[in-house]
Task: inverse folding
Protein backbone atom coordinates (compact mmCIF):
# COMPACT_ATOMS: atom_id res chain seq x y z
CA UNK A 1 0.00 0.00 0.00
CA UNK A 2 2.78 2.46 0.92
CA UNK A 3 4.56 1.89 -2.40
CA UNK A 4 1.40 2.79 -4.26
CA UNK A 5 0.99 6.01 -2.24
CA UNK A 6 4.63 6.99 -2.84
CA UNK A 7 4.33 6.33 -6.59
CA UNK A 8 1.12 8.34 -6.78
CA UNK A 9 2.68 11.24 -4.83
CA UNK A 10 5.72 11.32 -7.13
CA UNK A 11 3.49 11.23 -10.23
CA UNK A 12 1.27 14.08 -8.99
CA UNK A 13 4.31 16.20 -8.06
CA UNK A 14 5.89 15.66 -11.49
CA UNK A 15 2.62 16.53 -13.19
CA UNK A 16 2.28 19.74 -11.17
CA UNK A 17 5.83 20.85 -12.02
CA UNK A 18 5.49 20.13 -15.74
CA UNK A 19 2.08 21.80 -16.07
CA UNK A 20 3.29 24.84 -14.10
CA UNK A 21 6.19 25.36 -16.53
CA UNK A 22 3.83 25.23 -19.50
CA UNK A 23 1.45 27.79 -17.97
CA UNK A 24 4.32 30.15 -17.11
CA UNK A 25 5.26 30.50 -20.79
CA UNK A 26 1.77 30.63 -22.29
CA UNK A 27 1.41 33.95 -24.11
CA UNK A 28 -1.81 35.93 -24.34
CA UNK A 29 -0.47 37.54 -27.53
CA UNK A 30 1.81 35.25 -29.53
CA UNK A 31 4.27 36.20 -32.29
CA UNK A 32 6.34 34.45 -34.94
CA UNK A 33 10.06 33.82 -34.57
CA UNK A 34 11.78 34.51 -37.90
CA UNK A 35 15.42 33.54 -38.32
CA UNK A 36 15.49 33.75 -42.14
CA UNK A 37 18.50 35.83 -43.20
CA UNK A 38 16.81 36.73 -46.50
CA UNK A 39 14.02 38.69 -44.81
CA UNK A 40 13.80 40.91 -41.76
CA UNK A 41 14.12 38.53 -38.86
CA UNK A 42 14.89 38.49 -35.18
CA UNK A 43 17.99 40.36 -34.02
CA UNK A 44 20.14 40.39 -30.90
CA UNK A 45 19.69 42.72 -27.94
CA UNK A 46 20.64 42.81 -24.30
CA UNK A 47 18.85 44.08 -21.21
CA UNK A 48 20.35 47.43 -20.12
CA UNK A 49 19.65 50.39 -17.86
CA UNK A 50 17.88 48.69 -14.97
CA UNK A 51 18.41 50.47 -11.66
CA UNK A 52 20.37 48.13 -9.35
CA UNK A 53 18.81 50.01 -6.40
CA UNK A 54 15.32 49.55 -7.82
CA UNK A 55 13.48 46.27 -8.27
CA UNK A 56 16.44 45.05 -10.38
CA UNK A 57 14.51 43.17 -13.05
CA UNK A 58 12.72 43.65 -16.35
CA UNK A 59 9.30 42.02 -16.33
CA UNK A 60 8.63 39.67 -19.24
CA UNK A 61 4.91 39.91 -20.04
CA UNK A 62 2.46 37.57 -21.78
CA UNK A 63 1.48 40.37 -24.19
CA UNK A 64 2.61 43.81 -25.39
CA UNK A 65 1.65 45.97 -22.42
CA UNK A 66 1.99 46.42 -18.67
CA UNK A 67 -1.58 45.15 -18.22
CA UNK A 68 -0.55 41.62 -19.30
CA UNK A 69 0.62 38.94 -16.83
CA UNK A 70 4.27 38.89 -15.76
CA UNK A 71 5.63 35.48 -16.79
CA UNK A 72 9.36 35.92 -16.13
CA UNK A 73 12.12 38.35 -15.16
CA UNK A 74 15.30 39.41 -16.96
CA UNK A 75 18.31 41.30 -15.57
CA UNK A 76 20.99 43.71 -16.84
CA UNK A 77 23.22 41.91 -19.32
CA UNK A 78 20.75 39.14 -20.20
CA UNK A 79 20.77 38.51 -23.95
CA UNK A 80 17.55 38.16 -25.96
CA UNK A 81 16.43 38.04 -29.58
CA UNK A 82 13.90 40.74 -30.55
CA UNK A 83 11.35 39.60 -33.12
CA UNK A 84 8.22 41.69 -33.36
CA UNK A 85 7.55 45.30 -32.34
CA UNK A 86 4.11 46.42 -31.18
CA UNK A 87 4.35 50.07 -30.26
CA UNK A 88 6.97 50.36 -27.50
CA UNK A 89 6.88 46.61 -26.77
CA UNK A 90 8.95 43.85 -28.37
CA UNK A 91 8.24 40.16 -28.72
CA UNK A 92 11.43 38.42 -27.58
CA UNK A 93 12.83 34.95 -27.11
CA UNK A 94 15.73 33.77 -24.99
CA UNK A 95 17.36 30.79 -23.23
CA UNK A 96 17.24 27.10 -23.98
CA UNK A 97 14.71 25.66 -24.01
CA UNK A 98 13.39 28.65 -25.91
CA UNK A 99 11.23 30.99 -23.84
CA UNK A 100 9.13 33.79 -25.33
CA UNK A 101 7.52 36.95 -24.01
CA UNK A 102 7.13 40.72 -24.37
CA UNK A 103 9.30 43.50 -22.89
CA UNK A 104 9.33 47.30 -23.08
CA UNK A 105 11.90 48.74 -25.49
CA UNK A 106 13.33 51.19 -22.92
CA UNK A 107 15.43 48.39 -21.45
CA UNK A 108 16.82 46.88 -24.65
CA UNK A 109 20.25 47.73 -26.06
CA UNK A 110 22.02 46.35 -29.11
CA UNK A 111 24.68 43.67 -28.96
CA UNK A 112 26.63 41.98 -31.71
CA UNK A 113 25.11 38.54 -31.77
Result:
Amino acid sequence: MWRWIVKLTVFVAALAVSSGAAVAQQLDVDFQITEDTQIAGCSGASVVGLDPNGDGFLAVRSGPGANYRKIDELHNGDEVRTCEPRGEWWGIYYDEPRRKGWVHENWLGNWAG
In short: The two ends are 56 Å apart (CA to CA). Residues 28-110 form a domain with the SH3 type barrels. fold (CATH 2.30.30.40). The first strand starts at residue 43 and ends at 47. The chain has a mean pLDDT of 79.
